């Protein structure tokens, strides 16, 4: 069991390295330069790719939190904790690349009237809170409490999304109901970047899960050592 | 259902009896709310010209902050002397324990509002509200959702090493939709603005209240279990 996960971690690690390296070609050479925004628009590929994978991460936190409360198997808790950590990392990247792009294009680092910006910030804060909660709480009860917050936090996400949207709006709608406002090369680049980051995401996730497993195993050994004498 | 409510009401009665005998918590919450109002007045320079923009904050921040501190104290009563464990062993639905604690906190915060909202009108002299029923409805619904989550998160915070410091960290990001809704509704209720929009925000608030009352009732047993 453990060895299989380690093997997967290694495979995904190499694959992520290859794909992210190849992705540099797609983002900087293959994709055409955007007419009005210029090269700074290339940030969009990383921005959107990390955003999608962050949503995936937080969805996994919800699923593994429910699984943990239902089945009470420690491994589900490891997965939830790890997914939240990598999700916060990716959301942090989204919140860094967004303002870097916005400064030249909108002439402001941050606009509170943009709903997705605000919603992403709130999302980030919710899962930062989840990580702080996890760090300050221990044992079985701690794991159950974290799982309950993981569920409540995710249920809140769509409400935040819609309420912030009704508050006001002007995010670039790259993919709208009218279709995709990009050239074919741009779409290919975006899809490939997203896949590369998804592989990277699962590599980081597995690395964290394996670390959690080792930490739990070490704690059990320590306990046995103390109970022996 | 009847049994569920009866066991909740038993907890409400117990909490209110303690609070009305001590009186110190309720009084401190009211004084604290007044102090926040005074501080907000100085920091926003809330004269008549600025009032249009800051009125909702002046009304709600004292309530939010004083509820935060009060609920932390009210829930902490049960941390002492293994009270949670005692209630957990009682043959009642754990959800009803949560609901009872929540209703008790809610009544306490309503009592604070009974003082702090009239004080808002006396101190800042806003024009008479456009729609008093909307203002009252918004106060009731906004307080409900906020208090429900505050009660749930306060049990989590008190189980952690950070204690009550963790409560706002957990509560504030999750309550953002509620804050947006009550601020907009308060603005609509106090000043003449776009008509029609209040239904959107009432719907947000209603959905929020229902969801975050039912979920804690369902999930509360996982927090108590030892």
Automatic annotation (TrEMBL), chain B:
Q: Which domain of life is it from?
A: Bacteria
Q: List, in alphabetical order, the GO biological process terms annotated in this UniProt record.
A: cytochrome complex assembly
Keyword Membrane belongs to the record: yes
What stretches pass through the bilayer?
24-44, 50-71, 106-126, 132-153, 165-187, 199-224
One MF term from GO for this chain? heme transmembrane transporter activity
InterPro entries the UniProt entry points to: Cyt_c_biogenesis_CcmB
Give membrane topology per the record. Answer: Multi-pass membrane protein
Location(s) in or outside the cell: Membrane
Sorted keywords for this record are: Membrane, Transmembrane, Transmembrane helix
A GO cellular component annotated for this chain's UniProt record is: membrane
Q: Which family does it belong to?
A: Belongs to the CcmB/CycW/HelB family.
Q: Which protein are we looking at?
A: Heme exporter protein B
UniProt source species: Bacillus thermozeamaize
């Amino acid at each position: 069991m453990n060895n299989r996960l380690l093997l997967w971690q290694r495979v995904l690690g190499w694959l992520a390295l290859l794909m992210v390296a190849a992705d540099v070609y797609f983002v900087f050479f293959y994709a055409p330069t955007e007419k009005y925004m210029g090269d700074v628009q290339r940030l969009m590929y990383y921005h959107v790719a990390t955003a999608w994978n962050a949503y995936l991460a937080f969805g996994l936190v919800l699923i593994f939190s429910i699984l943990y409360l239902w089945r009470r198997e420690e491994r589900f808790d490891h997965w939830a904790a790890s997914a939240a950590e990598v999700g916060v990392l990716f959301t942090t990247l989204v919140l860094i690349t967004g303002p870097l792009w916005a400064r030249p294009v909108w002439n402001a680092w941050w606009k509170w009237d943009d709903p997705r910006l605000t919603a992403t910030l709130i999302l980030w804060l919710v899962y930062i809170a989840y990580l702080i909660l996890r760090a300050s709480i221990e044992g079985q009860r701690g794991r159950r409490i974290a799982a309950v917050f993981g569920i409540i936090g995710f249920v809140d996400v769509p409400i935040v999304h819609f309420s912030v949207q009704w508050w006001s709006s002007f995010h670039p709608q790259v993919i709208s109901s009218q279709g995709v406002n990009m050239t074919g090369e741009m779409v290919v680049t975006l899809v490939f970047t997203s896949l590369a980051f998804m592989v990277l995401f699962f590599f980081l996730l597995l690395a964290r899960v394996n670390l959690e497993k080792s930490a739990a195993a070490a704690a059990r050994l320590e306990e046995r050592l103390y109970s022996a004498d | 259902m009847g049994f569920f409510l009866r066991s909740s009401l038993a907890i409400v009665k117990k909490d209110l009896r303690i609070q009305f005998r001590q009186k110190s918590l309720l009084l401190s919450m009211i004084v604290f709310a007044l102090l926040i109002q005074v501080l907000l007045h100085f920091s926003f320079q809330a004269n008549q010209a600025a009032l249009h923009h800051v009125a909702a904050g002046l009304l709600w921040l004292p309530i939010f902050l004083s509820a935060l501190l009060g609920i932390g104290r009210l829930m902490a009563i049960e941390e002492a002397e293994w009270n949670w464990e005692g209630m957990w062993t009682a043959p009642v639905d754990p959800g009803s324990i949560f609901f009872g604690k929540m209703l008790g906190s809610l009544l306490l915060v309503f009592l604070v509002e009974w003082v702090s909202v009239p004080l808002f009108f006396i101190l800042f002299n806003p024009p008479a509200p456009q729609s008093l029923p909307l203002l009252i409805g918004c106060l009731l619904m906004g307080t409900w959702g906020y208090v429900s989550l505050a009660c749930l998160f306060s049990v989590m915070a008190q189980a952690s090493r950070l204690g009550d410091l963790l409560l706002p960290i957990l509560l504030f990001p999750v309550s953002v939709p509620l804050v947006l809704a009550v601020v907009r509704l308060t603005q609509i209720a106090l000043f003449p603005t776009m008509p029609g929009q209040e239904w959107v925000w009432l719907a947000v608030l209603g959905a929020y209240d229902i969801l975050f009352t039912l979920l804690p009732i369902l999930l509360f047993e996982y927090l108590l279990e030892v």
